[in-house]
Amino acid sequence: MIRALLADDEAMIRAGVRAILAADPGIEVVAEAADGREAVEQTLRHRPDVALLDIRMPRLDGLAAATELRRAAPGTGVIMLTTFGEDEYIARALSGGASGFLLKSGDPLELIAGVRAVAGGAAYLSPRVAHRVITELGGGRLAVGARARHRIAALTPREREVLALLGAGLSNAEIAARLHVVEGTVKAYVSAILTRLDARNRVQAAVVAYEAGLVAPTGDTP
């Protein structure tokens, strides 16, 4: 019997996942959690074979919980179950110790297959996620984009806006005109951005903007 834990802050989602897993007589849901911290505590208490974690949860998100479980409960396989398919989530989940990544919008049969695969010591990605990994990792862009997005996470919304325009090749004067501020204000933003990104010059900052997806390949901001 495969023992599973469900962690999601939405009770209806937990009920839906539980119902799907109940269709397989070889899977038993032994515990549920409404946030990441509780998920870690319940996993340590019940030692399930598989923990299904939502990515966005209060107190401790699923990615952080997966990292903790890799250290504290290495015998429990982790599957990230989410509505979000962005590259940074996939890369961070897999590097954080998750053995599976499933989208809530996927086929219910994928959920059962994923639980069985991870419980057996294998990895499992939903077909849609697998396609993204295969196509993106060919050029290493998945990890590069994830790292760049992590770097710009420390920026304020206005700083990200300035970085996007900087990455598109605009001068300080052009950025000032676009944002309706004085050029001195833009200079201050640029200086702060370089410091936060640990970039030595505007070119390095522009590369980060491109890798993070703030600038489209054509040079236009999204």
Automatic annotation (TrEMBL):
The UniProt entry, under InterPro entries, shows: CheY-like_superfamily, NreC/VraR/RcsB-like_REC, Sig_transdc_resp-reg_C-effctor, Sig_transdc_resp-reg_receiver, Tscrpt_reg_LuxR_C, WalR-like
- What name does this protein carry? DNA-binding NarL/FixJ family response regulator
Keywords on this record? DNA-binding, Phosphoprotein, Transcription, Transcription regulation
Gene3D superfamilies assigned to the protein according to its UniProt record, in alphabetical order: 3.40.50.2300
GO molecular-function terms, A-Z: DNA binding
Which ranges carry the HTH luxR-type domain?
Answer: 148-213
Chain positions found as 4-aspartylphosphate: 54
| CDD domains found in the cross-reference section | LuxR_C_like (cd06170), REC_NarL-like (cd17535)
